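Researcher: Next sequence.
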Amino acid sequence: MIAKLDDSQLAAELSRAEALRAQSQSSYERVKAVVEAKAGAPQDLDDAAAALKVAEANLALARARFAKTRIVAPFDGIIGSRRVSIGTFLRAGQAITDLANIDKIRVNFSAPERFVSVLKPGAEVQVSTTAFPGYELKGEIVVVEPVLEAGTRSARVVAQVANPGRKFRPGMSANISAVLSERPKAITIPNEAIFGSGDQSFVFVVKSDSTVSRVPLKLGTRLASVVEVLDGLQPGMTVVCAGHQKLFEGARVMPVAVQGKTIPTGKGEG
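Model: Next structure:
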């Protein structure tokens, strides 16, 4: 139960309806016994039965009205702050609080017109938020609006996402990624391996003699954790994912794998 309205008048009406129904039931039973004993007119029994039905209908109505004084949640969820004070006179349709079921959430985002043709209901998306770095949920697109927004030339897209743990909350900003096409032979590296100088992106590659070389890159599609390399690397190359701020061309390193990342250790040699 979320809230309770003042029920004093309706409680009294319910008690009265219950008493009248009990009285009508008693009268019906008494008249029935008299008629069955051939000591009364059948019409009296019909009248008593009709009175009982009226009393039962009035009782059902009183119970329904009384039940409406208890405001219950139509579904399981999280209750927000109270919008009214105790004793406030409520108008029909007035909101008293917010109730949200966030076991499943809907994420609204806009897609540029060049991607609309490949975004279809049922397509998988990945959803992340800066509030929980590294935490990602999977969902699927349920709506792609057929009409684009004139000002932005983008389409509104809605995705439904299961939200175990209820970490994602209504109103949060989110990062959305979706597979628009597949390139099985694409080379990808962690985002943190890349550093820049001006407008050029670089990465340190570990050579066979354990020295590093700074390699310029041409980048492609960037995702939440990895980025596509269009030019500059070959499959199988080892790149430095952390600690590259202290490195220089020709520095010697000792690669150490920590949680899937190659971190250089040791002293550099000029």
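Model: Confidence is low (pLDDT under 50) at residues 262-270. The chain has three helices and 17 strands.
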